[in-house]
Every structure is written in structure tokens, then in C-alpha cells.
Amino acid sequence: MNSSQSHYLVWFDTEYTTLELDEARLLQVALVVTDMQGHRVSSPENDLVTPVRLPPHTLVSDFVAKECPDLVLKARADEAPTVEVVDTMLVARLESLLGPMPAKIKDRPILAGNTIHADWWMARRFLPKFLARLHYRNLDVSSLKILWLDSKRGPEFDKEDISLLRQYLSGWTLPEQTRRHDALFDVMASIAELNYYRGKLLVQ
Length: 204
Known about the structure:
Strand order of the largest sheet: 3-2-1-4-5
Strand content: 5-15%
Shape: globular
Structural class: alpha/beta
Radius of gyration: 17 Å
Number of helices: 8
CATH topology: Nucleotidyltransferase, domain 5
Mean pLDDT: 93
CATH class: Alpha Beta
Helix content: 25-40%
Number of strands: 5
Number of domains: 1
CATH architecture: 2-Layer Sandwich
């Protein structure tokens, strides 16, 4: 591969215990790597999604307890990998997909997602090896969403609409249990949303 990896997007999403990010703990992470046109660099089997073990007695918000009970159970299970192990897993997956980390930060792949600053913040707190593997720039689909909504040229992308997701993820297979508050589903929805805005805003 090209020695520069800055033309790759590392789509990343986290689920966590509370919206108070200074207090939050990770519940789940997901990672998919694409090129700038949204094409996978590898097969779906190489996507990464995993629960993250919660420390004993960690509280979760009422919203998370109601919306994500299965995920909370998985994160409380003894077999869930610790956050340190997950950090290593993420780095290893990038190494296997893109090769060794470039020495220059400007040549590293770019973190991408929706409201990506929140996921970046969680990575800064808990996933330092993974964060160090990435470019200093981020691609936030929310920036395009804001511009699109302000233009009043059409509706907001609805990631609850599975047929819409399939339309803008041509050739992709969605997770069997398509639902919000699942990190892999949210990653794919972000990629679909970028494709939606790409065709409506980013045109000649």
C-alpha cells in the first residue's frame, strides 16, 4: 500500500454509560475502514465490533439502562475484553488492514463518524494507543448535516429508514439486528449519510 494512509477513513463509533463524557465509561466500540469514496478496504469479516468490560459497580444512565439493556449485560460479563485489550485490538486491526503506522502523523488515516468529537474524547480517555495511530484531522459527517439542513434543500437523512440505508450503502450488508445505539450499525449509518450528502452537496 501507499506509505501514506491519509486517504483512508477510520469509521469509529462508541457506546457509553452516560452523556456526561467526563464520567462516562465505554460499553462498546466499532471500527470499519474505507477509502475516501466509502468503499471498504476489506471484507465485512474484518470489521471490528466488541463490548468493553465495565468496571464493577459502574453505574449507567437511566436512558442507557432502558435503551441498551443487552449491551449493558454484555459489558458487565466477565468475558468482555477490558478497555486495555480493546485498545490493543483496535490498533492490531488497523495494522492488519493498512499496514504499519506511518512515522508522520500527517500520513496516518483519518478518524470519521457522526459527532466524532465525542468518540474522539472517549478514545482520548481510554484508547490512547488507538488514538495515537490516527491523523490529527477528523471527518465529522455532522458538519455536512448542519450545512444541508441550513440549505433547506431537502430532508435530514433518516438513519431509522432501513431502505434508505440500503440505498446509500449499495452492496453492503447491514448487521442482522439493525438498531440504533449499536456501534456497528451507527458506523454504517454514518457512511450511508456521508454518501447521501456527497450526492446532494458535494457535486460539481
